[in-house]
Amino acid sequence: MRATTIHAPFDMRVEDVPDPVVQDPTDVVVRVLRACVCGSDLWAYRGESARQPGQRIGHEFLGIVEAAGSEVTGFTAGDLVVAPFVWSDGTCDYCAEGLQTSCPRGGFWGSVGSDGGQGEAVRVPFADGTLVKLPADAASDDRLLTALLALSDVMGTGHHAALGAGVRAGSTVAVVGDGAVGLCGVLAAKRLGAERIIALGRHTARTDIARRFGATDVVAERGEAAEAAVRELTGGQGAHAVIEAVGTEQSMRTAVAISRDGGSIGYVGVPHGSGTGLDLSVMFDRNIALRGGVAPVRAYIPELLPDVLDGTIDPSPVFDLTVGLEGVPGGYKAMDERTALKVLVKP
Amino acid sequence: MRATTIHAPFDMRVEDVPDPVVQDPTDVVVRVLRACVCGSDLWAYRGESARQPGQRIGHEFLGIVEAAGSEVTGFTAGDLVVAPFVWSDGTCDYCAEGLQTSCPRGGFWGSVGSDGGQGEAVRVPFADGTLVKLPADAASDDRLLTALLALSDVMGTGHHAALGAGVRAGSTVAVVGDGAVGLCGVLAAKRLGAERIIALGRHTARTDIARRFGATDVVAERGEAAEAAVRELTGGQGAHAVIEAVGTEQSMRTAVAISRDGGSIGYVGVPHGSGTGLDLSVMFDRNIALRGGVAPVRAYIPELLPDVLDGTIDPSPVFDLTVGLEGVPGGYKAMDERTALKVLVKP
């Protein structure tokens, strides 16, 4: 089959690789209908996260089950399924608690020896623990299929951030980061009943989506000017719930600065740099909490799925460029240069 | 009156200072019956927190109301009262929410221009918002009075840490720090229903109190050996709730290392050093939360007071040395040299 591989920074290729097959009785093989490129894939693309030459890539996909191992009970050939961005066994303590990202037998798509989502097909370990079935008729609804793909990562990650930030009915929320995750954070906050949602971002194409997703205010300033703007919008106090969807020291510093005393930062931007963006003394004096991390998306799909199916939430606008599999390298380039927000792949 | 002052590092004095009087109609003056020395006072004593020469000190006290301003409605002369370690107006948004430490009109005892607890009397601003009345007959019960004094800081701070750590019925809790706050954290965790409480500490006099307060296990090792010991006690996973009651980079590093994935660190040790003890990448991968800060003790006194009065909790064993007011400088020396755990002052 054809699949995307990464050979060096900025050297993405689409190549012939072995067809995936059922290896363990708990595996299924999924034929990919939709995949996409994630902001976190760009860390590998830019060489800031190490990869072995030829390693697969892509951790978001949905598709049709093509073959199932003898011990798989939940899926059969022909099922439409979505995969969260990690696989997990579904039986350990952590899986039982809904923290599948900590499953000792879990792993990331595209890690050495595994298939990535940006290819024609994927061998899925622990299929019963990992995959979630979708209604078969969704396969013929292009818009819906795109919205459902967001459940593999960005929508669940935005939801995780909103939970970490403690968003509830009536909350005032600020969102740092105007990428797909930040935008999905807006959508998640709105879904949880936030009354006021302040989106920080300079790109009107993105902040327009934020407004469509429920943002009531947009702050286009950066740094201290942005902090001042959020304070002015919140009677000088800051936002009780802050979603941090970037992961840099600067964004963390902004998140702390715009938090209300007693508030919480829900952080889902993969941290680059240490904790030095966090001024613990400020957080201590103001009782600001930090909660988040890698989102256990698998736990959230059952909760979010009905709302996507009935249109209560529609994350599909975060995809603004569609490519075929051979167009994936160009998709990376477009996202790296910020001419695309998030690239949809139709193999 | 006589009161403790700090003139330079290691230069504590007991001197004649002006008698406090009602200045604002919302003030009361409290004659101090019991005060104490806090571990955080030692930062000033050691010169690690700056003080002006002659500044007052001490932020924990209880006593008898001697005079009340014309607008004070909750207290009259003769009332037995306990003060939390900050004063607060009792009327702002933050006070209404139980985050009195963020009251814009609040302040710390011993800050420039205010009285400290380690003296014969204290002028208390915003008395109605700040003080809590105690039963009059407690004044004649020496042991109970000492236990009630702990409500001014360490017991409420331990409770704040336990809440931040997410302690609930059945929790496995680890406590970093064997000072008075850490020990009160053990007591608070036990009170909240923790099933297993692992106290980290090397001083048997202290860990004996921890056991008396409800610790089920004691880990005397330090650093990586301590981390390994906690992992072994918890089936390799770590503790879901970690109380961090020290505030150094090393203690924060230990707290992260012994947290279970998905767990929470309740931190109440005043941070010295930046966030560099926090490895955000580790916290991110394992979904470890950080919650805490300066404890809004005023909010917790009404909840904890009945349990102290009926003996359900008795924090009085954290006081292991009693001095008169003239003995306060010696009390600092004893705590600094760790020959005393916490010094009780009877002016």
Automatic annotation (TrEMBL), chains A, B:
Residue span, Alcohol dehydrogenase-like N-terminal domain: 25-135
Residue ranges occupied by any Alcohol dehydrogenase-like C-terminal domain in the UniProt entry: 180-305
Family matches, as Gene3D superfamilies: Medium-chain alcohol dehydrogenases, catalytic domain, NAD(P)-binding Rossmann-like Domain
Cofactors that this protein relies on: Zn(2+)
InterPro entries listed in its UniProt record: ADH-like_C, ADH-like_N, GroES-like_sf, NAD(P)-bd_dom_sf
Molecular function GO terms recorded: metal ion binding
PANTHER family: DEHYDROGENASE, ZINC-CONTAINING, PUTATIVE (AFU_ORTHOLOGUE AFUA_2G02810)-RELATED, ZINC-TYPE ALCOHOL DEHYDROGENASE-LIKE
Protein name per UniProt: Threonine dehydrogenase and related Zn-dependent dehydrogenases
